[in-house]
Amino acid sequence: MKNRRTSDGGTSSRLQALCAFLGLIVTLAAIVVLARSAFAHQSPPDLSVRTEAPRPVASGWAVEVRVLNKGDMTAAAVEIEGESEGERAQASLDYVPGRGEKRATLVFSSSAKPQARVRVMGWSDP
To answer: Is the CB of residue 105 less than 8 Å from the CB of residue 91?
Structure first.
């Protein structure tokens, strides 16, 4: 205990110095990550649609739709439209996050299994 002194005027231990150094590294890394994301260019929304196999429901057929956003920015008020044999179905999503996806379901009232063509009608900036 001759090498260690109290915090009121002595030398710090190696463990305290190591912890302080690690804290400095973590703090600098956080600053670099935040600065990089603040000044990086974000790509606009890039939406695509994927459909899953139709399933029967009480009112006809339901087609689940996945909307994928390959862009960095969020798309808000996303409008989706599906068409099958002259019948149209629409759905709205509040938002699709950047580099994320959301799901919606379109319902067709036809008795035959629909072959839906689905597209994104539009969106707005949040």
So the answer is: yes
Q: For the chain, which residues make up each domain, given as ranges?
A: 13-42, 47-124
What dotted CATH number matches 47-124?
2.60.40.10
Beta strand 75-84 pairing with 60-69: unpaired
Kindly list the averaged pLDDT for each block of 10 residues, start to end, along the chain of length 126: 54 88 97 90 94 94 97 96 95 97 96 93 94
Nearest 10 degrees: Cα torsion 10, 15, 16, 19? 160
Q: Is 80 exposed, middle or buried (0-12, 13-18, 19+ CB in 10 A)?
A: buried
